[in-house]
Structures are given as structure tokens and as C-alpha cells.
């Protein structure tokens, strides 16, 4: 089996589902946000503060190009689809799974996850976060070869559906 790339908004479950997929398939799991923290030598929030979003997106692209052909499970960052170059790269791959999550669900998950500070949503209201999410929807859909709804589902059921459909 070729690798699986997970895309979706913050709080959609990419890391959780990615780790479970790795367990089930025996493949390595790479979380792009975690990998970038290691490679950049600082948190994503610190990098955003020093260099800005564009520079961060460029780092994501470099990482995507490096890992694109590996047989592994990749959990991307929520904004990887913002760059047209990344969407083109993702469309060349299969399968790219969009973990489609309703705003109520990811807002609840983000509120509970105090460990992972996300620079784009610090001190934003639910409405402001949704305004970040909505323009991304067509990019997620365009990039995906498979769309899996995740709201009100367990990670195990999501993994099972992914494995059945690929």
C-alpha cells in the first residue's frame, strides 16, 4: 500500500487518526507540525511571530516535497492547502484523505486542546475561526481523493472507513 496523506482543518483529528492508521498498517507516521517544530528549532507560534505565515507555508512546501513519495502516514498542517503549489502536489498523490469536520466539532476539540497553541486562532472567537475555515473548504475538497466525515465519530471508526475505501 502506498502512503496516506491526511488533510483537514485544525482539530479535525489528523494526528490522532494518523497515529491509529500507522498502527493498523505498520507504516511510519509523520506529523508535519511536529516535524517542523523539530526542524525549525522552535514552536510554530514562535516561527510565525518571527517570520510570518508566508515563510511558514514555504517550510510546509519543502517538507511536503521531501516526504511526498514515502510509504507512510502523513498528518499535514491545517493550512497546507492554502498554497496552490501544495494543492498541485497533493493532487498527484493518492490517497489524500480530507477529514471533513463540522465547525462545532473542531471548535470543541480546539477549546479542549490547550497543549497545541495554534498561531492563527490565538484569542479568536468561534466566528473568527470559522471565517478562517470556510475559504479553505474548496481547497480541501479539490486536493482530496477521499472525503471522510469525522464529526460525532470515534477515531477507530474513521480509520476503519479509510482502510475500507482505499
UniProtKB/TrEMBL annotation:
The residue ranges crossing the membrane are none
InterPro entries assigned: P-loop_NTPase, Shikimate/glucono_kinase, Shikimate_kinase/TSH1, Shikimate_kinase_CS
- One Gene Ontology term, aspect cellular component: cytosol
- What reaction(s) does this enzyme catalyze? shikimate + ATP = 3-phosphoshikimate + ADP + H(+)
Note on how the cofactor is bound: Binds 1 Mg(2+) ion per subunit.
Q: What class of enzyme is it?
A: transferase
UniProt keyword list: Amino-acid biosynthesis, Aromatic amino acid biosynthesis, ATP-binding, Cytoplasm, Kinase, Magnesium, Metal-binding, Nucleotide-binding, Transferase
Instruction: Locate the residues binding substrate.
Output: 33, 57, 78, 136
Q: Where is it located?
A: Cytoplasm
User: What family is this protein classified in?
Assistant: Belongs to the shikimate kinase family.
So what does this one do? Catalyzes the specific phosphorylation of the 3-hydroxyl group of shikimic acid using ATP as a cosubstrate.
| Assembly information from the UniProt record | Monomer.
Against HAMAP family, the record matches this protein to: Shikimate_kinase
Protein name, entry field: Shikimate kinase
> Which species does the entry assign this protein to?
Candidatus Enterococcus dunnyi
- Name the gene behind this protein: aroK
Amino acid at each position: 500500500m502506498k502512503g496516506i496523506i491526511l488533510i483537514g482543518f485544525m482539530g479535525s483529528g489528523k494526528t490522532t487518526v494518523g497515529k491509529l492508521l500507522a498502527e493498523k498498517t505498520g507504516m511510519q507516521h509523520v506529523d508535519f507540525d511536529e516535524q517542523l517544530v523539530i526542524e525549525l528549532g522552535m514552536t510554530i507560534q514562535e516561527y510565525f511571530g518571527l517570520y510570518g505565515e508566508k515563510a511558514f507555508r514555504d517550510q510546509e512546501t519543502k517538507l511536503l516535497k521531501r516526504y511526498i513519495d514515502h510509504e507512510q502516514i502523513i498528518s499535514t498542517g491545517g493550512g497546507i492547502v492554502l498554497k496552490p503549489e501544495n494543492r498541485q502536489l497533493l493532487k498527484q498523490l493518492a490517497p489524500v484523505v480530507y477529514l471533513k469536520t463540522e465547525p462545532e466539532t473542531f471548535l470543541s476539540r480546539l477549546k479542549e486542546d490547550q497543549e497545541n497553541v495554534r498561531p492563527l486562532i490565538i484569542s479568536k472567537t468561534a466566528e473568527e475561526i470559522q471565517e478562517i475555515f470556510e475559504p479553505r473548504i474548496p481547497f480541501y475538497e479539490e486536493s482530496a481523493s477521499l472525503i471522510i466525515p469525522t464529526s460525532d465519530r470515534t477515531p477507530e471508526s474513521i480509520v476503519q472507513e479509510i482502510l475500507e475505501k482505499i
